[in-house]
């Protein structure tokens, strides 16, 4: 893939560390048309990352980057009890370098006013950024990226949504530039849903 003039580009081998569902299939809160365990959904979520999995700069990539794609379901378990400590433990256990999170709350009433990304940064020691998709329940709701390496910048791109009825939720793509050991890495996270 060509880079800008005078800049080398290195594509990193990407390893999807793990896909984790908080809810058993009978409790899944995803669309009935595309469940969390559906391989098509995994492809949609992971393909956004793979598009940007090239670095600019210095050294050739020699080690794979481990990526965890994780739907936190607003940081709750199947009983809707706060479970951010478990999310943080899963991030640590997966030994991921980059974590793409979906359904993340920031200061909502349902999450007790907790800034979930700040809490996960505190527990894991990772860098983290949040992208607001919608205002929700007195706070914000969206997606987030955690990284073992410093996040240099981030931008949320609001995606177009065909508004057929009021149940359609605004969507976004969170783009982060990460200062990885082998160079700058651009990572994209999004949370899509299938509609009829």
Question: What is the structure about, briefly put?
Answer:
The chain is an alpha+beta fold. The protein has helices at 39-51, 84-93, 116-124; strands spanning 9-11, 14-20, 54-56, 65-71, 98-106, 127-136, 139-147, 151-159, 171-180, 183-190. Helices cover 16% and strands 38% of the residues.
Which terms summarize this structure?
single chain; 196 residues; alpha+beta; disordered N terminus
Protein topology:
Layout: E1 9-11, E2 14-20, H1 39-51, E3 54-56, E4 65-71, H2 84-93, E5 98-106, H3 116-124, E6 127-136, E7 139-147, E8 151-159, E9 171-180, E10 183-190
Parallel strand pairs: 2-4, 4-5
Antiparallel strand pairs: 1-3, 3-10, 5-7, 6-7, 8-9, 9-10
Helix pairs in contact: 2-3
Protein architecture, described:
With 196 residues, the chain is α+β, with helices and mostly antiparallel strands. It is built from three helices and ten strands, in the order ββαββαβαβββββ. The strands form two sheets. A five-stranded antiparallel β-sheet has the order 1-3-10-9-8. A five-stranded mixed β-sheet has the order 2-4-5-7-6, with helices on both faces. β6 and β7 form a beta hairpin.
């Amino acid at each position: 893939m060509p880079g800008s003039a005078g800049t080398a580009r290195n594509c990193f081998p990407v390893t999807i560390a793990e896909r984790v569902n908080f809810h058993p299939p009978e409790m899944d809160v995803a669309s009935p048309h595309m469940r969390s365990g559906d391989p098509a959904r995994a492809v949609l979520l992971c393909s956004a990352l793979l598009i940007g999995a090239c670095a600019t700069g210095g050294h050739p990539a020699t080690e794979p980057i481990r990526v965890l794609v994780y739907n936190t379901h607003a940081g709750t378990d199947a009983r809707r009890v706060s479970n951010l400590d478990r999310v943080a433990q899963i991030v640590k256990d997966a030994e991921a370098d980059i974590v793409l999170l979906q359904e993340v709350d920031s200061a909502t009433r349902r999450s007790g006013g907790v800034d979930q990304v700040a809490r996960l940064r505190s527990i894991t020691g990772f860098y983290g950024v949040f992208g607001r998709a919608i205002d929700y329940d007195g706070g914000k709701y969206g997606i987030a990226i955690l990284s073992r390496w410093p996040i240099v910048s981030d931008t949320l791109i609001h995606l177009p949504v065909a508004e057929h009825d009021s149940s359609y939720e605004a969507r976004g793509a969170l783009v982060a530039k990460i200062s990885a050991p082998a160079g700058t890495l651009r990572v994209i996270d999004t949370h899509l849903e299938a509609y009829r």
